[in-house]
Amino acid sequence: MRHCKAGLKLNRTSSHRNAMFRNMVTSLFKYDRIQTTDIKARELRRWADHLITLAKRGDLHARRQAMSIVREPGVVYRLFDQAKERYGDRAGGYTRIVKIGIRPGDAAPVSMIELIGIEKYKGKSAAKKKEKKSAAADSAKVKTKSVAEEAELPQKSEE
Fold first, then answer.
1. Topology, domain 1-116
2. Element (H, E) at 35
3. Where in the chain are the domains?
4. pTM check: above 0.90
5. Any idea what the Cα angle at residue 72 is, between residues 114 and 25, rounded to 5°?
């Protein structure tokens, strides 16, 4: 009997299962949402919540534990950099699973798993993008004025 055995087997060997969930959790933190089957999404939630809890702790040992799961340093850096800001006041439940429908090929139920707090975080980046666009527009106006002034200077000297 499988009493007190946490985790799903998913008809895979342990090495395949670990590699699959490492890749999936890396993609989840890289892109903030991924699409997968319902059962894999529920199991992936456990992995993601564990890593976010490590990131909220934020010490060197937690970072090394996270690096043993997520093998991309940029993803781990981004996770640890944003974790306290995004999830500091939240005590669990860092992911949301939304059922999409069924997959056409094999009728498997498909879900989208996403990180909570994307809207709040993306709102800040959208404001930064607007600031950059306005700064770029201002610099473009200055450049066009200076080009127009330079174009006028030779004309004045000819007259």
1. 50s Ribosomal Protein L17; Chain: A, (3.90.1030)
2. strand 33-37
3. 1-116, 118-159
4. no
5. 25
Residue range 98-154, pLDDT digits in tens = 999 999 999 999 999 999 987 666 656 556 666 766 776 666 666 656 655 665 655
* Measured distance CA(68)–CA(45) in Å, rounded: 18
Task: Name the nearest CA neighbour of 40 among 71, 5, 10.
Answer: 10
If you ran DSSP here, which 8-state letter would residue 95 be given? E
Q: What is the pLDDT of residue 145?
A: 61
Query: To the nearest 10°, the Cα dihedral for 104, 108, 109, 110?
Result: -70
Pairwise CA distance, residues 42 & 45, whole Å: 5
